[in-house]
Design a protein that fits this description.
Number of strands of chain A: 6
Order of helices and strands of chain A: EHEEEEHE
Number of domains of chain B: 1
Largest sheet of chain A: 4 strands, mixed
Helix content of chain B: 40-55%
CATH class of chain A: Alpha Beta
CATH superfamily of chain B: Cytochrome-c3 Hydrogenase, chain B
CATH topology of chain B: Cytochrome-c3 Hydrogenase, chain B
Strand order of the largest sheet of chain A: 1-4-3-2
Number of strands of chain B: 8
Order of helices and strands of chain B: EEEHHHHHEEHHHHHHEEEHHH
Oligomer: heterodimer
Largest sheet of chain B: 3 strands, antiparallel
CATH class of chain B: Mainly Alpha
CATH topology of chain A: Beta Polymerase, domain 2
Distance between the termini of chain A: 33 Å
Radius of gyration of chain B: 20 Å
CATH architecture of chain B: Orthogonal Bundle
Number of helices of chain B: 14
Radius of gyration of chain A: 14 Å
Largest interface: A-B, 35 and 38 residues
Chain lengths: 114, 361
């Protein structure tokens, strides 16, 4: 398995993805969060069509208060992953609505560990 | 332009096997806007996997994400865990996993095809399709002990071996199933009413499929050559006669035809597995504690299933992330509805074979 991981500050995420992402070549899988206590590690996963086990991963970290830049300008289908981040980690994702996965009365940000 | 009317579709609707809610804004019969809600069956499974269950138990927990996709979920998790911990799975276990995985694909595809026939008003074909699907359910029960919610794969291998008695019955049932699947392919491909109703309805173009990152049979029906079985080495598909089925057109008709053709290829693979099943162990012990991160892709019946796990040398993992195929296909469905006639919505939704138990988790 080949994994090309690019670590960037949060403000650079959209520019980094824009530099390589071409929908004809790249398949966006999802964005994943892992709570590190006070901050969340975010990874945007991509794979290349026609390649075996080849991934590009853009990694960044965000504090609970940071605004996460949306990538829906580049990848329109990314909204659902971003809205999930907003619900399950309680993150402030640009343009994301709350309540797609969680009921308003349910515990908020359940995937935060702290 | 007519007056704008709000039409809710779901969460409970005669055409829906699972709860999803679309709120359509329509002008006359045309949909002009849509909102979606997918969270009706959120059960906090990812949270439970990272707080309550030990890493050796998680395979059984993720099998409860969805009854139909249980095989794929466990397979995704154990593959990620085995890769993270450097476990080499015996070849016989890999072949058995492949057999069950393809049987699961057959019964899931037949379910989707049957439901689409039902919403087209073709109740008889729905019943026929489900009747033949029953053969696969019986085969899965013989192999795994359950009709749904199977706990077949486990870290290091599989939980049950294939006995000669079971193999004999499987071969008999597979032969009947092959005949029925050929007949079903013929009906879904050539029936005049179905073709008239579905061809050109709910079209996803290849460009749209790439733009919206569509996965599974809807992507392949649109001409996009993507199938994790060809892109990720998690089971020996090449050795058993796997072929990627790709069609042009992208409508409900092609989505169902891709499924019908994949059913035939899966049956062919099942024959090859039974004929060439390697001898040997079905399981190896898994020792140690998981440390680091791993992610894998699996081709579940509905499309690409993604698993991410992370551990820090503890019995309980730090993170288990599941990205299911329906989750990936919701954005294109939402996009597709705008401009569509409301009457085409039920068949279009069902043709994506949505699984909301998986999506909400």
């Amino acid at each position: 398995m080949v994994v090309d991981e690019i670590k960037v500050p949060l403000r650079e995420v959209r520019r980094t993805i824009k530099e390589f992402y071409d929908p004809k070549e790249w398949h966006f899988i999802t964005v994943n969060g892992v709570d590190l206590g006070g901050k969340v590690e975010l990874k945007w996963f991509f794979t290349k069509y026609g390649e075996r086990e080849y991934f590009k991963v853009v990694t960044s970290e965000a504090s609970y208060d940071d605004e996460i830049p949306t990538i829906t300008y580049l990848i329109p289908s990314a909204w659902i992953s971003e809205w999930e981040l907003a619900d399950l980690f309680g993150l402030n994702v640009e343009g994301a609505k709350r309540g797609l996965f969680l009921d308003p009365e349910s515990p908020q940000a359940p995937l935060r560990r702290g | 332009m007519g007056k704008r009317i709000t039409v809710p579709f779901g969460s409970q609707h005669v055409a829906l096997p699972e709860p999803v809610r679309f709120v359509f804004q329509t002008e006359n019969e045309k949909i002009v806007d849509v909102e979606v809600d997918v969270g009706y069956v959120h059960r906090g499974i990812e949270k439970a996997c990272a707080t309550k269950f030990k890493y050796m138990q998680v395979g059984y927990v993720v099998a409860r994400v969805c009854g139909l996709c249980a095989i794929s979920h466990t397979l995704g998790y154990v593959t990620a865990l085995e890769r993270l911990m450097g476990v080499e799975v015996p070849k016989r276990a890999l072949y058995l996993r492949l057999l069950v995985s393809e049987l699961d694909r057959i019964h899931s595809h037949l379910l989707a095809m049957g439901h689409t026939a039902e919403v087209a008003g073709y109740e008889n074909l729905f019943m026929q399709t489900f009747r033949h699907r029953e053969l696969v359910m019986e085969m899965l029960e013989l192999l795994t002990g359950n009709r749904v919610q199977f706990d077949f794969a486990c870290p290091g291998g599989v939980n049950r071996d294939l006995t000669p008695e079971v193999e004999k019955v499987l071969r008999e049932k597979l032969k009947v199933l092959e005949e029925k699947a050929l007949w079903l392919r013929d009906v879904y491909e050539n029936d005049f009413s179905l073709t008239l109703r579905w061809k050109g309805t709910g079209v996803v173009t290849e460009e749209m499929a790439k733009e919206m990152n569509v996965v599974g049979p809807p992507a392949r029906a649109a001409g996009l050559k993507t199938d994790v079985r060809a892109e990720f080495d998690y089971l020996p598909f090449k050795e058993v006669g796997y072929r990627m089925v790709v069609l042009k057109g992208g409508s409900i008709y092609e989505r169902n035809l891709v499924r019908a053709l994949e059913v035939l290829n899966s049956i062919e693979m099942c024959w090859n597995i039974l004929d060439g099943l390697p001898e040997g162990d079905i399981k190896v012990p898994v020792k140690g504690l998981p440390e680091g991160e791993m992610f894998v892709r699996i081709e579940a019946p509905r499309g690409e299933l993604f698993y991410y796990i992370r551990g820090s040398k503890k019995l309980i993992l730090d993170r288990v992330r599941i990205r299911v195929p329906t989750f990936a296909n919701i954005p294109v469905m939402k996009e597709l509805f705008v401009g569509m006639d409301y009457a085409d919505v039920p068949a279009t939704v069902i043709s994506f074979d949505p699984c909301l138990s998986c999506t909400a988790r």
